[in-house]
Design goal:
Blueprint: E1 18-26, H1 29-44, E2 51-56, E3 60-63, H2 69-72, H3 75-80, E4 84-87, E5 95-97, E6 101-109, H4 118-134, E7 141-143, E8 147-150, E9 153-163, E10 166-174, H5 179-185, H6 190-195, H7 208-212, H8 218-233, E11 236-239, H9 244-258, H10 261-264, E12 277-283, E13 286-295, E14 301-309, E15 313-314, H11 318-325, H12 334-344, E16 348-349, H13 354-366
Parallel strand pairs: 1-2, 1-11, 3-4
Antiparallel strand pairs: 2-6, 3-5, 6-10, 7-8, 8-9, 9-10, 12-13, 13-14, 15-16
Length: about 375
């Protein structure tokens, strides 16, 4: 296929970058997330090739890996109205997903595209998805850090991380959706809407149905995305089969972790304790909220730290390791401890910086008792 004018040329022939294409169809939210992790595990073990996957959800509220559940999702409403609740293995913000949206994900090796930086990979993958959506007749454009928009309104959100030498990167396409359902299921921060000069969350998003007057068939959308990935990334997608190993791993992950209430509510309402202080910091990479408990006669030492937010880090356990590393640290040297942690850790950051974490934690320390 010839590249469009201005498209980035492939560094190696497309034929040297085969990608299996699979579709897990419509499955409950937690089952789809468990399959995400199964693909990561199987790819790391060399049991599956580089792959592209399509997927769909019944009505589901999905929180990011590091978000506090009750602060992002209207849990009682979702339970009363049959809306599933799941926690992603990726970072980022809470989203509402239903049958009117199409999910896509890529799982591939760190060396496949010869791009080492998570930020550079996010840009290239988003540009590829945008190129595919433009084939449907809309002016889709990449908007840093990880959105695809049409006329300033989001039609696709994305995110991902490295796990060792395996990259997992996922996104959505808003095909058709009633924004009222999204607003009812999620706690959309007023400040987030104000930053974009919007009156409501429905003005922030747009669907293919609204743009084109009628939603294209899913097969047409999938084909357009695959063409965009082929053109921009220089890959050769080909239909493949879901392996028995992936299904087995997904079942295990679901039963032991991702499908459990304990995992979904693993970060819930950190403000419940009276001795917790909190503060938030918003930077280019997202919002970071720090929750701290102090100890000692002068309350000058960190007893516990919890970090939540809609940021992306690679690998996801980086945040848990940082929280552990800060226990017992004197409050006066928190910034130095955070910087030292990131200097020593092998992590990737998507726009967010070590100083952003330090800013949030220092602000929480300075905050009065709740």
């Amino acid at each position: 296929m010839a590249s469009k004018p201005g498209a980035a040329p492939a560094a190696v022939p497309a034929a040297s970058r085969p990608f299996r294409v699979i579709d897990t169809g419509l499955r409950p939210g937690r089952a789809q997330i468990a399959f995400d992790q199964a693909m990561i595990d199987a790819h790391k073990a060399g049991e599956i090739p580089d792959s592209i996957r399509f997927l769909r959800f019944p009505p589901t509220a999905l929180v990011g890996r590091h978000q506090a559940l009750s602060r992002e999702v209207r849990v009682d409403y979702c339970r009363a109205n049959g809306i599933g609740i799941a926690r992603r293995v990726t970072g980022g913000g809470a989203i509402y997903f239903d049958e009117g949206q199409l999910g896509w994900s890529l799982v591939f090796g760190r060396g496949t595209l010869a791009i080492a930086s998570l930020g550079d990979l996010a840009r290239e993958i988003c540009e590829a998805a945008a190129a595919g959506l433009r084939r449907l007749g809309i002016d889709a454009q990449y908007r840093p850090r990880n959105d695809i928009e049409v006329g300033g309104r989001k039609i696709s959100g994305t995110g991902g991380f490295f796990d060792g030498d395996t990259l997992f990167y996922q996104g959505t396409v808003l095909v058709d959706m009633d924004p009222a359902h999204m607003l009812a299921a999620l706690n959309v921060p007023e400040a987030k809407l104000a930053r974009r000069a919007l009156d409501s969350a429905s003005q922030r998003v747009v669907t293919l149905q609204e743009l084109l007057g009628s939603a294209p068939d899913l097969a047409v959308i999938k084909a357009a995305l695959l063409e965009g990935f082929t053109e921009r990334l220089g890959i050769a997608p080909a239909p493949g089969d879901i392996s028995a190993r992936e299904e087995a791993l997904a079942s295990t992950r679901f039963e032991e972790e991702i499908g459990t209430e304990a995992f979904v509510a693993s970060i819930d309402d950190p403000s419940a304790s009276a001795d917790v202080r909190s503060a938030s910091h918003t930077g280019a990479g997202g919002t970071i909220t720090a929750w701290v408990r102090l100890e000692g006669p002068r309350l000058a030492r960190l007893r516990e730290v919890l970090i939540t937010g809609d940021f992306f880090v690679t690998p996801p356990r980086t945040v848990f390791d940082l929280e552990s590393a800060l226990r017992g640290v004197d409050a006066s040297v928190v910034r130095a401890a955070v910087i030292r942690f990131f200097e020593r850790a092998q992590v990737g950051l998507l726009s967010v910086a070590p100083g952003d974490f330090a800013d949030a934690i220092e602000a929480a320390i300075a905050a009065g008792r709740r």
